[in-house]
Design a protein that fits this description.
41% helix; seven-stranded mixed beta sheet; binds pyridoxal-5'-phosphate; Aspartate Aminotransferase, domain 2; 2 domains; Aspartate Aminotransferase, domain 1; alpha/beta; 386 residues; 13 helices; four-stranded antiparallel beta sheet; globular
């Protein structure tokens, strides 16, 4: 733990009233244990999952959020907090070409809410939702909750939806909605958004884009891989995965203003949240982002470039030094699979990487979510097994 953080934590503990010595030392011990566990994300070999290392600016946001504790269900009481939320939503809408939105606790909620709106908006007789077999599991879960049927379309060799298969399925059984993914959880693949949007347009069905992980690419200069993103009816994105922020910080954006589908009223609120899933929420969903941007707006983008560069270096090194099959996605996930069982079994012993599947084939997966994760350090972990 750095010295300033340690001083701040100690003074916070000191400010808790009526604390006996025993309780104080228990609290201090518990803090130490948890902060040591968090060091995992600062390691140069941290590559197992999409959880980034977080910095002081974001920490400040979460501290202020806990202190402020305002509930934006009564936004009139908290004009400053409401204004910050509005400014951030407008900043986030731009790269994704959307008009409206709000913060949520994560893209599992985002996917559920988007499909709820798709179902209510589209009064078609279909209850089918198409996505690829690499679509995040929360989409299938959301379909179950909403009484919809998720149908998985096959993926190509890098994990992108097979759009010809999607089109054929859509012709046979038109859907209520199509879900395209920008940055699949396993391999980081980006579905062909243009093609998915064309199919959705032809059928006049809802297009939702799950950009929870890969949405960070929308902030980069000269990006062409996301062409078609502007045509989605809804899109979710997780700064808590892709922009180095602590959970929860997630956003769901829409093309059209949301309609109210329920007549449910709460007599104690001036405005019942009829269009969104969440109940109480406040700055905990976005003040980390606000303070991160206030401290260094360009830094947040340059960090995305730098972790993508480390992913590229790692993939290139694997290509140079091994005969393994390598999948290098544009969103900062590198997967690899040795071509023989002996090497594959040996790699099972390394916990640095996670296990995933691409097209049902087991692969090892390195996720470049933290700016601390370094290609050379990851490669050093693998060297004894080459
Ligand atoms: C592509 C994708 N969508 C949605 C989610 C769900 O996000 P959350 O865990 O924030 O609910 C994930 C989580 O890893 C993901 O990778």
């Amino acid at each position: 733990m750095n010295k300033e953080l340690s001083t701040q934590i100690n003074s916070l503990i000191e400010s808790i009233p009526d604390l006996g010595d025993k309780q104080r030392s228990e609290i201090t011990a518990s803090v130490q244990v948890l902060l040591s566990e968090a060091l995992l994300h600062k390691k140069v070999t941290w590559a197992a999952h999409m959880t980034p290392e977080t910095g002081s600016a974001a920490l400040l946001g979460n501290l202020i959020a806990a202190h402020h504790n305002g509930n934006l269900l009564s936004a009139n009481l908290y004009p400053q907090l409401a204004e910050i939320e509005a400014q951030l939503i407008s900043w986030l809408c731009q790269p994704f070409y959307k008009q409206h939105g709000h913060f949520t606790h994560g893209s599992s909620y985002g996917n559920l809410e988007a499909l709820w709106h798709a179902r209510e908006h589209n009064k078609s007789s279909s209850n089918i939702v198409y996505g690829s077999s690499a679509t995040h599991y929360s989409v299938a879960k959301a379909c179950r909750i909403l009484g919809l049927e998720f149908r998985a379309i096959t993926t190509d060799s890098v994990g992108k939806i097979e759009t010809d298969a999607l089109q054929t399925a859509c012709k046979q059984n038109p859907p209520l909605a199509i879900v395209a993914t920008v940055g699949t959880s396993s391999s980081g693949a980006i579905d062909s958004l243009e093609r998915c949007a064309n199919i959705a347009d032809d059928l006049n069905c809802w297009l939702h884009i799950d950009a929870a992980w890969g949405g960070a690419l929308a902030f980069l200069e000269g990006q062409t891989m996301l062409t078609g993103i502007e045509r989605a009816d809804s899109l979710c994105f997780d700064p808590h995965k892709a922009l180095g922020l602590p959970k929860p910080c997630s956003v769901i954006l829409y093309q059209q203003p949301l309609e109210s589908f329920t007549d449910i009223e709460a007599d104690y609120l001036s405005q019942t949240p009829k269009k969104t899933l969440a109940g109480s929420y406040g700055g905990e969903l976005f003040l980390s982002l606000w303070f991160r941007l206030l401290c260094n707006k360009d830094g947040i983008i340059s960090e995305v470039y730098s972790r993508l560069e480390q992913a590229r270096l790692f993939a290139n090194k694997l290509k140079d030094k091994t005969d393994w099959t390598i999948w290098h996605s544009p969103t900062g996930i590198v997967c690899f699979a040795p071509n023989n069982d002996k090497e594959r079994l040996a790699l099972e012993n390394i916990t640095t990487f996670s296990n995933a599947k691409i097209n049902n084939q087991p692969v090892f997966r390195a996720v470049f979510a933290s700016t601390t994760t370094k290609a050379d350090a990851l490669f050093t972990e693998l060297e004894p097994y080459l």
